[in-house]
Amino acid sequence: MPSFQVLATKAWPDGVRLWRWSPASDLIAVVPALANSAADLLLFRLPWQKLWHWSPPTPLAAPSRAGGPAASASATDERIVDLVWRPDGTAWSELATGPQAA
Fold first, then answer.
1. Do residues 26 and 8 touch, judged by C-beta distance below 8 A?
2. Which tens digits make up the pLDDT trace of 19-46?
3. How far is it, in rounded angstroms, from Cα 9 to Cα 47?
4. What's the order of all strands across the beta sheet hosting 27-32?
5. Nearest residue to 97 via CA among 59, 65, 69
6. Is the CB of residue 84 less than 8 Å from the CB of residue 20?
7. Of the candidates 56, 48, 54, 94, which has an alpha carbon nearest to the alpha carbon of residue 73?
8. For the chain, which residues make up each domain, given as ranges?
């Protein structure tokens, strides 16, 4: 069985909720564990060079049906629940979102 060599380490003070290595390159996609950034997606190239950071847009307020104040949703109502890289490793093919756990 082949052995692996540690190239670099990265400390995540609040933890990582989800991470996926690219099957074909030195890219890693990371979703932080913080509740307010559970829908953020970061892309790194080893040794931990940040290439990209995506945050979802804040949802627009939906009009109220009863004529009262507009109903609004929080950006933390949704979170990334899974991420799947394409087999060639050039992009992710699936980014699943779902409700934030209570």
1. no
2. 888 888 888 998 888 766 667 888 999 8
3. 8
4. 16-21, 27-32, 41-45, 49-54
5. 59
6. yes
7. 56
8. 16-55+75-99
